[in-house]
Amino acid sequence: MNVALSPPKLFVRTVPLRDHTAGLVSRLPDETPLAWLTGDEGIVGWGEAARLDLGSEPEGTAPTDTTRFSEAARRLNGLREHAEIADEVGAAGTGLVAFGTFAFAPTSPGSALIVPRVLVGRRGGRSWLTTVSDEPGALPGGLPHTASAPRPVGPVTWTRGSLTGDAWMAAVADTVTRIRAGELEKAVLARDAFAEADSPIDVRTLLERLRLRFPSCFTFSVNGMVGATPELLLRREGDRLTSLVLAGTRPRGEDPDGDRRLADQLLASAKDVDEHRMAVDSLRTALAPLAEEMEVPRSPSLLQLANVQHLATRAHARLSPGVSALDAVAALHPTAAVGGTPTDTAMRLIAGAEGMDRGGYAGPVGWLDGAGNSEWGIALRCAHVDGARARLFAGGGIVAQSEPASELAETESKFRVMREALTDGS
């Protein structure tokens, strides 16, 4: 396990930023950009004042192990204790901020927290600049007045992932058989695909395309994971927590009548409503020990995105004293919407059925600041970008009524988000 025995001394300063006109993505240099955006608001950062790579656990570790989250909290607390912070703005996302991504499974590598050298934020009509240096009064390098223009992706070669479509459908059919036999109620199975460009992919190009196409989603870039997730694992402000559960999916229609017909089918589908209920029950069970109050609607609403529509439930809670954002992240992950029910059984099935390591896919991704404010999403509708290569992910919830061909079609709909982001002129 990678443990920092002596955290670096960080000097953090946040000041108001008068320039409210420039887009956040346009401020980013092209190297390892960090981002968490909703429409025109959010935070972006670059450089690494501190990087906390979190260890993976040995094979055989319980799939619900939370060591990586507790290690992240301990090491981040060490950074805070050694930091001198001057915050002239005092909003969520100011002061000492770390972007983070956690692997789906405890045995997978890739979990990390990154404190950027430079951060620019915008929220509620206010903008700010945070700089982090190693000496008092010093400005970090890499403060460009104007960043270079994002580059087109160029030609892309697409290849299949770890399993063929037929092999993945066979895994779905086997999972349905096990569910009907009573081994479990639900498992979420995912698949991957690959894209190869002729030159390194400019993540800023993907961020801008995703942000514009999905303004209500959370567009992110952290440690190679890039995407636009509709699923808010949690938002914490003070002692208040909000979480958005999504489970049950249909594509959007080609015209208003087709759209309404698909929406009505989703709302009336016993399979999708039951899948959604399991996800909401999972959230309620996980939050109960951490919260003094909870508000969870009895029935879902409809959330419509550019390419798909979901059953959605927005839950609210007031956390008990002493409960941190990472405590809540550890308790909520994996939700039934990305793992299954019962959690332990579903996680073990996933590990054997998918023929791949998910890495950061379906794991928590987001940010937190020194005051305890944070936003964490679930890394869905995403890809892991490494140089000229992107690995795309998509999945769906499998229950007793699932049909393999329909589930394969659902993953194809979800792949479209990143396929279009990687395609120039789409």
Automatic annotation (TrEMBL):
UniProt-listed Enzyme Commission number(s): 5.4.4.2
Keyword Isomerase tagged: yes
InterPro entries named in the record: ADC_synthase (IPR005801), Anth_synth_I-like (IPR019999), Chorismate_C (IPR015890), IsoChor_synthase (IPR004561)
Enzyme class of the recorded protein, top EC level: isomerase
Gene Ontology MF annotations: isochorismate synthase activity
Catalytic activity: chorismate = isochorismate
Pfam family, one: Chorismate_bind
Keyword set, alphabetical order: Isomerase
Residue ranges annotated for the Chorismate-utilising enzyme C-terminal domain, each copy included: 166-414
Lineage: superkingdom: Bacteria
Family per similarity comment: Belongs to the isochorismate synthase family.
Listed PANTHER family: ISOCHORISMATE SYNTHASE ENTC
Entries under NCBIfam families matching the protein: isochor_syn
Protein name, per record: isochorismate synthase
